[in-house]
Design brief:
The protein contains 1 helix and 31 strands. The strands form 7 sheets. Strands 14, 16, 17, 18, 22, 23 and 24 form a 7-stranded mixed sheet that branches. With 423 residues, it is mainly beta. The longest helix is centred in the middle third of the chain and has 8 residues. It starts with 17 loop residues before the first strand and ends with a strand.
């Protein structure tokens, strides 16, 4: 959010523009026609009987691909006082990484030129005086075309062609080259802004089946092309209104919303894994209660969000990420003596597993195992060991008969499979 405005999906925020200046830095990085590349001055216009063009190249131009060019100017220092009408155009070298002009044969005249160009005409009574720096009209359209090339990368070399456009005889501009005076060599000044790139959240991970009261990792990967330092926070929402949060400034995990108290978050056991310079994998270690509704659990887009420092956000969702299972079974049950005297103490033992597994519940809180006869509870226990074992002692019936005891357990619902033990 920026002020009272929240960026929508697909919207971008542009950072304050930056202005940089590059100056020709080598003999082979400027040239004009009808001279070798170390000549001085550079002539553009008409030098009887020929039309002259000039080329200039700047290296390590640190403008990122896709940047927005706000303004751009060619700056040159006049070598001599020139009058008369001079008509010129400025094109760009339409290549990803411009070569220098060391071939010394004017072959650069055959290089591809940008579609965009800018006219730079100086008409009498205006004229150029010697040793004065002059600035072209805005050539941002030319520079934009180059940095928008798919192969353009920050740090590449960029070249411009300043060409005659029908100047009258002996009407030209003469400007300093690198060899004439390196401090007065042509300059390129560009003001550009870089669009803030929206962060994303996705690559959700969890076990295919999650069991009640058993810890698991719920993972999400967040990515910001502007770098991990740009993250502010991330939230993930799962079915039944549970929202978990991570905060970048403090690197902390928390429960943001859980109105039904379904979720327990292990804060110290939750992890942030550094994937690379732009991405983290966030791992919330959680467990869900017995009362969490059984069934498939989805990632909900509404509050599954990642925000960056500019207020831009990304959201995502995933249907049926995992299945939540809260059913228990009594896998086995026995009694220490199946033929007893009336009112004798007898002990039942049994094993509790998650349904469809041979795994005992990890957290046995909330489970009560019971012995029942004809609908009446005869004994119970909440003591269940790490192997899911239970032991319940009761007093046998006072009358001689055969009895069928039901061994079962209860959480928020009874076990889906019970055992019957005959005494």
């Amino acid at each position: 959010m920026i002020g009272n405005y929240t960026l929508g999906q697909g919207e971008s925020l542009y950072i304050d523009p930056e202005t940089s200046t590059w100056q020709v830095g080598a003999s082979a990085d400027d040239d004009d026609t009808f001279s070798n590349y170390w000549g001085n001055p550079l002539n553009v216009g008409n030098v009887y009987p020929n039309s002259h063009d000039a080329a200039m190249r700047w290296t390590n131009v640190g403008i990122p691909n896709g940047a927005t060019i706000e303004t751009a100017y060619l700056k040159v220092t006049s070598y001599s006082t020139d009058d008369g009408d001079v008509y010129t155009r400025i094109y760009g070298d339409d290549e990803d990484n411009a070569d220098d002009f060391s071939s010394n044969d004017d072959s650069w005249e055959n290089r591809p030129r940008t579609t965009a160009y800018v006219s730079w005409n100086v008409l009498w009574p205006d004229y150029w005086e010697a040793d004065v720096e002059y600035t072209s009209p805005d050539i941002s359209s030319v520079i934009q075309e180059i940095v928008d090339r798919a192969g353009w990368t920050s740090g590449n070399a960029l070249a411009l062609f300043w060409v005659d456009d029908g100047s009258p005889t002996n009407c030209r501009h003469s400007v300093y080259s690198y060899d004439g005076d390196s401090t007065k060599a042509p300059k390129l000044e560009v003001t550009y802004s870089i669009p803030n790139q929206n962060p994303t959240i996705g690559e959700f991970q969890a076990p295919s089946t999650v069991y009640a009261k058993k810890y698991f990792f719920l993972n999400a990967t967040i990515n910001d092309p502007d770098g991990v330092a740009d993250f502010v926070n991330a939230t993930i929402e799962i079915s039944n209104s549970i929202i978990l949060k991570w905060d970048n400034a403090t690197d902390t995990f928390s429960e943001y919303q859980d109105t039904n108290n379904y979720c327990t978050l292990d804060v110290s056991g939750s992890l942030k894994i550094n994937v690379n310079s732009t991405a983290y994998k966030l791992c919330w270690r959680i467990k869900l209660s017995w009362s969490f509704p059984e069934g498939y659990v989805s990632i909900i887009a509404t509050n599954t969000l990642v925000y960056d420092s500019q207020g831009a956000s990304g959201s995502n969702s995933q249907t049926n990420l995992f299945y939540f299972e809260d059913d228990l079974i009594i896998a086995s049950a026995n009694v220490d003596d199946s033929r007893v005297n009336p009112s004798q103490t007898i002990t039942f033992t049994g094993t509790i597993y998650y349904e469809g597994t041979t795994s005992p519940p990890e957290d046995t809180s909330g489970i009560t195992a019971k012995i029942e006869l004809n609908g009446a509870v005869k004994g119970s226990t909440t003591s269940i060991d790490a192997n899911g074992q239970i032991s319940i002692s009761i007093t046998a019936e006072s009358s001689v008969a055969a009895y069928s005891y039901n061994v079962y357990a209860v959480t928020d619902e009874p076990t889906s499979q019970n055992q019957t033990v005959q005494v």
